[in-house]
Amino acid sequence: MTELESLETAAEHERILREIESTDTACIGPTLRSVYDGEEHGRFMEKLEARIRNHDREIEKMCNFHYQGFVDSITELLKVRGEAQKLKNQVTDTNRKLQNEGKELIIAMEELKQCRLQQRNISATVDKLTLCLPVLEMYSKLREQMKSKRHYPALKTLEHLEHTYLPQVSHYRFCKIMVDNIPKLREEIKEVSMSDLKDFLESIRKHSDKIGETAMKQAQQQRNLDNIVSQHPRISGGKKSKREFCASSDLEVKNTSPMSEQDSGILDVEDEDEDEEVPGAQDLVDFSPVYRCLHIYSVLGARETFESYYRKQRRKQARLVLQPPSNMHETLDGYRKYFNQIVGFFVVEDHILHTTQGLVNRAYLDELWEMALSKTIAALRTHSSYCSDPSLVLDLKNLIVLFADTLQGYGFPVNQLFDMLLEIQDQYSETLLKKWSGVFRNILDSDNYSPIPVSNEELYKKIVGQFPFQDAELEKQPFPKKFPFSEFVPKVYNQIKEFIYACLKFSEDLHLSSTEVDDMIRKSTNLLLTRTLSNCLQNVIKRKNVGLTELVQIIINTTHLEKSCKFLEEFITNITNVLPETVHTTKLYGTTTFKDARHAAEEEIYTNLNQKIDQFLQLADYDWMAPEPGSRASDYLVDLIGFLRSTFAVFTHLPRSPLVSGLTRCPFSLQGKVAQTACMSACKHLSTSLLQLLLEAEVRQLTLGALQQFNLDVEECEQFARSGPVPGFQGDTLQLAFIDLRQV
Question: Which residue spans adopt a coiled-coil conformation according to this UniProt entry (predicted)?
């Protein structure tokens, strides 16, 4: 029984081994599982080991059998590799030799290819050039003819080229370009024929300032001649009129033989002396290029084109001429050159208008003049506004007048220029006011504010000659003596007259009536008095370091200047010949100006005195609880009364100035009146300030001794009022300033 089981087990193990040998590795799991599930897996392992040893022996036998063949094969392969390497080296050497030998052949073949290509190209080029050269030769001939200004042969050559030669080579691009350019070439021929005109236009553009300068010299000479004739009876004979002169010069131009087409522009003219005859502006210009070009275009049937081109170019030149340089306002020469160019431009156009038929017409010229007038006026308004020198503004005005007179002589309306001059007159007045503001400041700053001393008759007459002053009592006094006013009075008076003269200079040659000139001068003088001089006086009065003596002297000075206004009225009347009774005559406002300055000085005196009083009162230190009073008034009040006495004493030492000028005098002086008002104001201010000290909220109680001390101070003030620090008060008028304080 046991033997049977062992046989079955051995058979089963044999089956499993065969299955392991023949089964795929991935499916061997179940087979091995069956081995481990049985109880004889030890024996199975022995059988498996035995089977592995059998297979190893078989493998060893097989390897021993085939090993010699393997070794022989490896030996053969090594031999083959060596031979293959030799063969590779031979092939490489052969290829290198073949490449080196073939390079020269390739180069030769490329050169042969290029030569054959060039040969074909040359042959084709020769064929094409045979057709194109005549076309190019004709085109070159056309250019030469155009360059030499042979206009008619050039047109004929262009016609032959267009209809005979170009159709043969029309498929070439340059020929198509030529065909497209034929209309342009025709236009170019027209433009080339206009080269003389361009030279002429360029020349007159460059020399228009010389033409204008000559024309303005003529106008200046004519004006000088008119002035001489207006002063002396005219003798028979004389110069030609400007228009006659132009006509004669036009005739001379037309009769001259034609010049070469390259000659055009301005004839050389040397500068003439003032005493010699100034050549006519038209004599400086050769107009023959314009006449020739106009004739050529008329023959070609393109007169309208020529007229349009000429007018267009002249409009462009007009815009350039009318464009002022940015620094024109700096010097008078800048304005002069600007005007010369404008005059030169319109002198040429006026000549063309009268010597050709229709090249320019009156409507075209009027349009140009309107544009020029508006741009010129705008430029002058802009640049003249930068002028701060009255002399330059005055010179500019004279130059504008000459500019207007020159163009008016050629028939151009210039009323707007004279209207613009009235605007510049306002600016001139402003520059004068600025200049005189500095003059007045210098006079007021350099004045010593002391009455003018005179030691002899000569000096006395000199001052009286400078300023209209009459005082019978002063004349009777022996030398040395003093005028009541300081030096700035005659200086300011004379500067006002100089200002009036400066205003009068601007009104010359403006074609204004005497009434308009008078009105202009009076308005400017009023501005000088009410604004410039008034501001200068106010600045002096408001200065911090001005003293009471200076303020009193200013009051005296302004009073005398106020009385001199009637003499300024007479002065203006004499130079304008307009009676002051005329309805539209402007009155001078000097009286108001000097009154305002005088009142400001008086107020400044009162303010300064009150400030000084306040400074002294700040030193007051009352002991309201003092048991006994002092033996005298407080020290600060004694010092204050001393200051007031010395201050009002200064008024009495000033020269007495009557309240009215002339032989009649008032019983009291001007400074006496100011002193009375100042004294009353100071006493009232002192009384009010002391009362405020007594009634301050901090003073809650006071002793009889403190009140008696305060009473001593009040008595000191009343004593000052009774002493009459300023003469002229009636009775106890000054003491009434302290009545309220006494009652309290």
Answer: 45-115
